[in-house]
Amino acid sequence: MRESKKDVGGQSRARELARAMRDVQTQAKDMRRRVRVQRKASMLGWLEASMLGHRMPSAAGLIADAQWKRDEINAYCWRCATTRAPFEDLERGCAECRDRSLGIHGVAFRATVRLGRYAPPLSQWVPAIKQRAWRDMGITLGRELGMQVVDALTEGKLARPDVVVAVPVHWARRMLRGIDHCQIIAEEVARLTGLPMASPLRARLALRQTGSSRDSRSGNQDRFLCRRQTLDRNQRHVLVVDDVRTTGSTLREVARALKQQGATDVTLAVCAAADPPRRNAMLRQ
Q1: Three-state DSSP string of the chain
Q2: pLDDT digit string (tens) for 117-142?
Q3: Owning domain of residue 130
Q4: In the chain, how many domains are there?
Q5: Which of the listed residues 15, 36, 52 is the one where a domain comes to its end?
């Protein structure tokens, strides 16, 4: 009788052990399945980001949440777009540019229009337009920049240009990014100002500007070449549209190529402009 009870108890423990082993195996199988699902989801997300572009939030919603507004026309230097210091006289430009000529390779430099300093949130939004193919933000900031140009024209800060030209992007970078960010911004500027657009330049595959030092940017020459399409005879004053102005090297190279197309005057419109280091230090005090 005692032996039969022991047998029964042993069988019971064996069944419990077998049940526990099955539970462990089931949990391990579920874990492996979840890992496979996560890997597939990660791979699909990577493919979507690489081939279709990143999913980005609403540009209008972000701007409203940040309570961001474009700068007043008198908040920055009309010549070089440097942030105005308190009580600074800008009649002949700011202290950074008033004592030097901004003529570029025989092309007269007229003015710069900007939305704001290259600082948060613009320093976060503007690079994301090209890095994450954020078309919505490009259109939104392009619309704001177009209105800023209209305001500058209304207040007499600049003469009316004849044509809008976007800073060109090399076709390889355009394909990899999935977006021509400057073209999108420039199209909105042209629409708001009522100016025609032209594409007389093409870009060479040169050193990337993003993340480069000021010296590297200044030495990055011959980046733009002329297309067969030329500017019309009545398109001598060109409004060049770019996303960011840092050292002015891009504008100098664009002006060099535009001169070959017959341009005589250049005005720059940018979403954000970086202040010189000493101006940044002064404004932080």
Answers
A1: CHHHHHHHHHHHHHHHHHHHHHHHHHHHHHHHHHHHHHHHHHHHHHHHHHHHCCCCCCHHHHHHHHCCCCCCHHHECCCCCCECCCCCCCECECCCCCCCCCCECCEEEEEEEEEEECCCCHHHHHHHHHHCCCHHHHHHHHHHHHHHHHHHHHCCCCCCCCEEEECCCCHHHHHHHCCCHHHHHHHHHHHHHCCCEECCEEECCCCCCCCCCHHHHHCCCCCEEECCCCCCCCCCEEEEEEEEECCCHHHHHHHHHHHHCCCCEEEEEEEEECCCHHHHHHHHC
A2: 999 999 999 999 999 889 999 999 99
A3: 57-284
A4: 2
A5: 52
